[in-house]
Amino acid sequence: MKTQCGIEWVSLFTNDSETLQETLTTDMEWPQSTTLTSVALGQAENMLVQGRETANSVVIVVTDGKPMSQRNTKSASQKLQEKAKVVWIPVGNSAPIDLIMELASLPKKENVIQIADFEQLEQDGTINDIVSTSCPVLS
After folding, report:
1. Fewer beta carbons below 10 Å: N end or C end of the chain?
2. Which pTM does this prediction carry?
3. Sign of CA dihedral 69, 72, 74, 77
């Protein structure tokens, strides 16, 4: 997947958030290539089998571009929604908002969190929006 599609798993499910953060901030480089969203959604669906059976499954998709195939992405998103809530975070002006609104779980307006740039992902308000949208119960 990495050689042909530029897709690489950085981490499987983990409770070790410190190690994950270290990996994300030091070992990763932004791929800056095409957007194979349909493949990413399929990979996320495959990953769900490793989760807890009783857990609410949520997939958060962060994208700043148009998918290579709208048809394949729509199909993959519909299939994924049979198993998980799909929350979209379109970043910037290049993300196809109309398409993303079609791809998000219902209610669509609650499951699309549009942000201006990647730096906004670090802001408390954005993090709160993502957590409150993704988690059915907050304590």
Report:
1. C
2. 0.86
3. negative
State the residue for tokens 């798993």: 9
CA-CA distance, 11 to 26, in Å (whole number)?
13
Residues counted in the chain: 139
Q: Which among 68, 67, 106, 70 has a CA at the least distance from the CA of 90?
A: 67
Instruction: Render pLDDT for 81-103 as a digit per residue (tens, 0 to 9).
Output: 999 999 999 999 999 999 999 99
**Dist CA 112 CA 88 (whole Å):** 5
CATH of span 2-134:
3.40.50.410
Look up tokens 């969190």; give the residue. Answer: 113
Q: What is the CA radius of gyration of the chain?
A: 15
User: Strand, helix or coil at 59?
Assistant: strand
Amino acid (one-letter) located at 6: G
